[in-house]
Each structure stands twice: as C-alpha cells, then as structure tokens.
C-alpha cells in the first residue's frame, strides 16, 4: 500500500508539509505531487455542483433525480449507480435536493446535473484549469463519467487539494508553491514568490457550495468523521469533507487544507 498527503495554507498557497510515500526504499515516486489518480467523488463539487451554481442551473434546494440513468456513449451503455450497488440491485433514492445528493455522494444526480451543465456550456473543464488542474488529457472533463472522477490519467493529490482551497478563498484560486524566497551568499533576496489569485467562482456561488459541503459532516458520508477525529462541537462548521467513499478525503478550515489518497497497491 502507498499513501500521499499534502497540507496547504489556503490564503497564500504555501505548502506546509507533505508525505510523498511510505518510504524511499519502497518507491522513489512522490505520491503527493507526481502520481495522478482518478479523484472519484471529490470531483463533484469542482466540476459539477460549483459550476452549476455559478451558472444558475441549480440552487442548494433544487430538486434532482436519483433514478436509473442510461445513456449510449460510443455504442456502449453507460448506467451509473450509487456506491456499493449495481444496476440490477441498485438502491436509488428518488427525488431529492442537490444539497442532499452531495451530502450522500449520490452518483446519478451528479451525472444528471453535469449533463445539463454540458448542454449549457462546453467550457466546464475550464473551471478545473482555472483551479490549477493541468493533468487533464483528451476528453477529460467533457465525458459524463468525469462527473464522478472518471478521467483518463487522473490528477495529483496536490492538484486536487489545491483546487479545494478555492472554496476557502471566497472563490479565488491561489496556486500552491514550495519555495518562498531565495537569497544569494550575501543574504540578498534574488527571488520572492508572489501570490496571484485567480477568480473562479462568485462569492454567492462559493458560499452556497461551502454550505452544501457542510452537510457532508452533518448527515452525509462524513458524519462519522468528527467522532473519529474527536472534533469539538464548536468550530465544526469550518471543516469540510467530501468523497470519502473513494478513500480520497480533503479536510479544511479557513487557514489550511489537507488532502490525502491511499493505494491498495504501490
């Protein structure tokens, strides 16, 4: 098993620390910054819900359908189901709010919203690019499976974690960095990093996205996490998590954001 993790300061993009793997003797790859993997359900806020909120396609209380979904793509049937189910035994939940669909990480509503989003604009992947995700290739971000993180190469933990800091910065992306400044032998600064925020989402859409993600902790897939981490009752509203079913989790509060991913095989 391998693991990668990274901790980023939201306001500046400063990489505070990272875990590149379980040991140099096992692998010389940096699993935090070099190894792309599909990011699963953590893609839903980035590519689906936040852009849909931005374009006015949905609101947190909008009704979406978690019902059987079938579509022919390149001659093959695409029929997504919810985690832990199959198309024949799948448990669907009928009509629900977009807020509830994200909290429970239901797959079909995310695909349905992304289908509507793609019909309105063909620039949905541009939101990912604005948030520093550069590992996309080919049709990544356009195919419907992208709504569930189904992309060709995947993205790195650094990219995924850094993208989520956008929500902590009122909708502005701040690129992550490791080198703050460089001085010469005389102590003169010859390089100083400068933070240059990029606006991705309006403050309203960003606030709504954050408010939806809070419910992941309240009653969604992350409801057990506060107890496991012994979070105190106060201040819990400032920590968010989504996509736990894929073993890729991101938690952040206003100052920092942490992302991690585990692999069963190195």
Automatic annotation (TrEMBL):
Gene3D superfamilies attached to this UniProt entry: DD-peptidase/beta-lactamase superfamily
GO molecular function: penicillin binding; peptidoglycan glycosyltransferase activity
Origin superkingdom: Bacteria
Subcellular location per the Swiss-Prot or TrEMBL entry: Membrane
GO CC field: membrane; outer membrane-bounded periplasmic space
SUPFAM superfamilies assigned: beta-lactamase/transpeptidase-like
Keyword field: Cell membrane, Cell shape, Cell wall biogenesis/degradation, Glycosyltransferase, Membrane, Peptidoglycan synthesis, Transferase
EC number: 2.4.99.28
Annotated catalysed reactions: [GlcNAc-(1->4)-Mur2Ac(oyl-L-Ala-gamma-D-Glu-L-Lys-D-Ala-D-Ala)](n)-di-trans,octa-cis-undecaprenyl diphosphate + beta-D-GlcNAc-(1->4)-Mur2Ac(oyl-L-Ala-gamma-D-Glu-L-Lys-D-Ala-D-Ala)-di-trans,octa-cis-undecaprenyl diphosphate = [GlcNAc-(1->4)-Mur2Ac(oyl-L-Ala-gamma-D-Glu-L-Lys-D-Ala-D-Ala)](n+1)-di-trans,octa-cis-undecaprenyl diphosphate + di-trans,octa-cis-undecaprenyl diphosphate + H(+)
GO terms for biological process, alphabetical: cell wall organization; peptidoglycan biosynthetic process; regulation of cell shape
InterPro entries linked: Beta-lactam/transpept-like, Glycosyltr_51/Transpeptidase, PCN-bd_Tpept
The keyword Ubl conjugation appears for this protein: no
Protein name: peptidoglycan glycosyltransferase
UniProt domain Penicillin-binding protein transpeptidase: residue ranges: 6-224
């Amino acid at each position: 098993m391998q693991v990668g993790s990274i901790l980023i300061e939201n306001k500046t993009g400063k990489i505070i620390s990272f875990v590149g793997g379980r040991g140099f003797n096992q692998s010389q790859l940096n699993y935090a910054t070099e190894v792309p993997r599909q990011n699963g359900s953590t893609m839903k806020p980035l590519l689906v819900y936040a852009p849909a909120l931005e374009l006015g396609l949905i609101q947190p209380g909008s009704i979406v359908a978690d019902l059987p979904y079938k579509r022919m793509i390149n001659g093959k049937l695409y029929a997504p189901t919810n985690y832990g189910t199959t198309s024949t035994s799948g448990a669907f939940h009928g009509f629900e709010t977009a807020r509830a669909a994200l909290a429970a990480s239901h797959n079909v509503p995310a695909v349905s919203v992304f289908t509507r989003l793609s019909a309105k604009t063909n620039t949905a992947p541009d939101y990912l690019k604005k948030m520093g995700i550069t590992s996309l290739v080919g049709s990544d971000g356009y195919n419907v499976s992208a709504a569930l993180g189904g992309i060709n190469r995947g993205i790195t933990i650094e990219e995924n974690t850094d993208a989520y800091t956008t929500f902590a910065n009122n909708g502005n992306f701040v690129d992550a960095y490791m080198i703050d400044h460089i001085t010469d032998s005389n102590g003169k600064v010859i390089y100083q990093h400068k933070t240059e925020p990029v606006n991705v989402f309006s403050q309203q859409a960003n606030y709504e996205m954050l408010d939806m993600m809070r419910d992941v902790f309240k009653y969604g897939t992350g409801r057990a996490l506060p107890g496991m981490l012994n979070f105190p009752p106060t201040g819990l509203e400032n920590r968010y998590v989504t996509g736990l079913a894929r073993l890729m989790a991101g938690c952040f509060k206003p100052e920092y954001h942490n992302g991690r991913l585990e692999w069963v095989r190195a």
